[in-house]
Amino acid sequence: MDRHIELPLKDEDIEQLHIGDYCYLSGVVYTARDAAHKRMYEALENNEELPIDIRGQVIYYMGPSPAREGRVIGSAGPTTATRMDKYAPRLLDLGQKGMIGKGKRSQEVIDALIRNKAVYFAAVGGAGALLSRCITSSEVVAYDDLGTEAIRRLEIKDFPVIVAADCYGNKIY
Predict the structure, then answer these.
(1) What is the pTM of this model?
(2) What DSSP assignment string belongs to the chain?
């Protein structure tokens, strides 16, 4: 089933999603890859605030290439999600509601999706140039020193994803 979803995610949206659903996301997502996740985890371990309020938010596992002239961002394809599996359950427990990446997730992440009524979306790997056309703005909001792995705030319009793991514990991988 095709679904158009406005972000941030709401519980009632998540409850309607099932594996294999095609979704078109519009609104704000944040990017974070390995290095940013590690820093956020360390901040939490040190009882420090996260650089963004993740409650209700979707994190896209992506590090863009440099933007060409006239574009807001370069190629923006997903990275392998399993690299964030050791950090994801804690962020989900803090209120994060969704993730976008590629590939399977650990059972600990699936359990956290169920526990927190959250969802994992898959984006098509290798289609970063096409996906970047759905991004209408991009700004670095934290960890600028990490370059492409900095946390960015993206505004997206009709960003295509597939529900890869739903809040009921079902998964396509």
Answers:
(1) 0.96
(2) -EEEEESSP-HHHHHT--TT-EEEEEEEEEE--HHHHHHHHHHHHTTPPPSS--TT-EEE---PPPPPTT-SSS-----BGGGGTTTHHHHHHTT--EEEEBS---HHHHHHHHHHT-EEEE--TT-HHHHGGGEEEEEEEE-GGGGGGSEEEEEEEEEEEEEEE-TTS-B--
